[in-house]
Amino acid sequence: MNITTRRLAKVYRGGHRALDDVDLHVEGGTVGLLGANGAGKTTLLRVLTGILRPTSGTVEVAGHDLATTAGRTAVKRTLGYLPQELSLYPDLTAREFLDYIGVLKGLDDKRERRRQVEEHLGDVGLEDAAGRRLSGFSGGMKRRVGIAQALMGEPTVLVVDEPTTGLDPHERMRFRRLLAGLGRGRTVLLSTHILDDVAQTCREVAVLDAGRLLFHDTTAALVSQAAGRTWAVTATEVGGGPPPEADVVSAATTSAGAEYRMVADAAPAGGRPAEPTLEDGYAALLRDHAPTRAHATAGHSTARSTAEPPSHERK
What homologous superfamily does CATH list for 2-222? Predict the structure, then answer.
């Protein structure tokens, strides 16, 4: 169930380095992959699924070497993948679509394929909608179909890209519960920019920034990056803002005024200690690596201006 990369790099035409010397080892459970747009998350996922070839470095998924034709074929047949934008066939029913995916994954035994179709429609709570055409499904239902198709073939590794983006709060909660359960008995790599998705579903987290792996440890260890450095400040004056020396993580309007949560090495003016969250830890990590990140960005600025990768590969 392992995912292992060693000195993995992906450089696009013109010199844009989307992945830069990434060493990552994931084994079992649900692991969150965090990073802003442009960090390299989607490029990494597309390399892991065999869709993109790396420029250099090695990749192994579930014991298969993606440098070989046999390894890429094995991964594509056995790994489950939910891309950010999954193309569905609107005239097919959910049952027909999953059956088609099963054929593509090499499930030649018709009885076994049908068994898996019904099982995985049940896993995502769509058994009552199995005979409906996909054109009539809501966004949340389509995402659930996406998870069901990823489960066809009983994969030991699942790769999921931004599964809750655009979902309403109810569907997002449903999806988080589903993702949390999928990590039992397999490896799930969940790419997202929504920290709550990671906080509620992942035991580990990896952070990419400008193509580099900044952090890989437990979720609690990322929270601890902000320990003793998280502050709450209330601006009571109209138009009052946060102190300039701190990084604002979030803001909310209260009856007392604007409430700011921020990360700073020392207490800002009017600052009260606050218990850190995953969001605070992530902000602290990026703050600590700001000089390195600025240097990396400057080093790639000319290449980026001359040759951007396709939009769906910038993440």
Answer: P-loop containing nucleotide triphosphate hydrolases (3.40.50.300)
